[in-house]
C-alpha cells in the first residue's frame, strides 16, 4: 500500500491531488510539523531532508512533490496523468513539470523577499516573464497539454492558485484566473481541499 506522509498547508497538497487523480489506493500519515514529527529517526529514514511530502511505496521511499507527482503518474498509467515515453507531448509535459520548482518557486521567493536579481543570472529569468510564459501556455486551454490533464497541471495549477489567491503575489490575468478555476473545479482537488479542511 502506498503511504503518503503529509501536513496541511504545505506542498503535500500536490501529492494528495495527484494521488486522488490517479484513483490509486493510498493511506495518509499526517505529521505534526510544529511538534517536530518530521525529525524523528523513522521519518528521516524516509526523507533525510525532514520535510513533507514523502511517499513510501513498498521498498521505495521518495520525496520532493514534483518527483512524487512524476512517480504517481508513471506508476498508475491508466489514469493518463503523463504522456507515455515516445509520445511527442512528453517533452513539453516534462518541461512544465520542472518549470514549477525551477522557475515559479524561485520567482515567488524573490518577489516575496523583495530581492532584485539580474534576469540573465537568475535561474527563473524574471518574475513577469515566468507568468507571461504561463499565461501563453494556459490560454488555449483547457490544460497545459491541451485536452489532456497531467501531473504537470497539478504542479502548475497549485502554484498559480497559491500565487494568485493565497500569497497575492501574481496579479490576476484572465487566462490564469480561468485556468486556476478549472483546476479548483476538478473533483479530485475538491476532495483534497475537503481533506485538508477537515484535518488541517
TrEMBL record:
Chain ranges of the GST C-terminal domain: 86-200
GO molecular function: transferase activity
Alphabetized CDD domains for the sequence: GST_C_8 (cd03207), GST_N_GTT1_like (cd03046)
Domain GST N-terminal: 1-80
Stored InterPro entries: Glutathione-S-Trfase_C-like (IPR010987), Glutathione-S-Trfase_C_sf (IPR036282), Glutathione_S-Trfase (IPR040079), Glutathione_S-Trfase_N (IPR004045), Thioredoxin-like_sf (IPR036249)
UniProtKB keywords: Transferase
Name of the molecule in the record: Glutathione S-transferase
Amino acid at each position: 500500500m502506498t503511504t503518503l506522509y503529509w501536513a496541511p498547508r504545505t506542498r503535500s497538497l500536490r501529492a494528495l491531488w495527484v494521488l486522488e487523480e490517479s484513483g490509486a489506493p493510498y493511506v495518509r500519515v499526517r505529521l505534526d510539523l510544529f511538534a517536530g514529527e518530521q525529525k524523528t529517526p523513522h521519518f528521516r529514514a524516509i526523507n533525510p531532508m525532514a520535510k513533507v511530502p514523502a511517499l513510501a511505496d513498498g521498498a521505495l521511499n521518495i520525496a520532493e512533490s514534483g518527483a512524487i507527482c512524476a512517480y504517481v503518474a508513471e506508476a498508475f498509467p491508466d489514469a493518463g496523468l503523463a504522456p507515455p515515453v515516445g509520445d511527442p507531448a512528453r517533452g513539453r509535459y516534462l518541461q512544465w513539470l520542472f518549470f514549477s520548482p525551477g522557475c515559479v518557486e524561485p520567482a515567488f521567493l524573490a518577489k516575496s523577499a523583495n530581492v532584485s536579481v539580474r534576469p540573465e543570472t537568475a535561474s527563473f529569468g524574471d518574475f513577469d516573464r515566468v507568468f507571461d510564459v504561463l499565461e501563453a501556455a494556459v490560454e488555449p486551454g483547457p490544460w497545459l497539454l491541451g485536452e489532456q490533464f497531467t501531473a504537470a497541471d497539478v504542479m502548475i495549477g497549485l502554484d498559480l492558485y497559491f500565487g494568485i489567491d493565497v500569497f497575492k503575489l501574481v496579479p490576476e490575468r484572465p487566462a490564469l484566473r480561468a485556468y486556476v478555476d478549472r483546476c479548483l473545479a476538478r473533483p479530485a482537488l475538491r476532495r483534497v481541499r475537503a481533506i485538508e479542511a477537515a484535518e488541517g
